[in-house]
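User: Can you predict the 3D structure for this chain?
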Amino acid sequence: MNDPKKLFLIDGMGAMGTASLLLLLPVLFPGIFGLPDFYTKLLGGIAVCFAAYSLYNYVRFNPTRWKPFLTVISIANTVYCVISLGILLLHFQQITTIGWLYFMGEIAIIMLLVLWEMKVSKTATG
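Assistant: Here is the predicted structure, written as structure tokens:
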């Protein structure tokens, strides 16, 4: 699928899922990830911003100028993964098994999305 509009929707919905998990699970299950609350709230807040950006671009999609916007979210997603990995390494002794599974899975999924976004940006016009 090379439809940038759908990529914005997928990215936005994924970011909403991430934000929901990071902001709600620690409230319901304190210590579930093993991270200090500050970091789960920080990553959840970033995910909220990414969701807003991607869903806004999905709604206002302009087929003639989408490449720069897709490139921005692709780079932002990559930076998010680097920040997440840095936080994990900074607190590696505190992270629970569920935390490692969640964050490593999230990073893997996001990086697959980044590769897809970069491929679409390079192969299509817009």
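The first helix runs from residue 4 to 28. The two ends are 15 Å apart (CA to CA).
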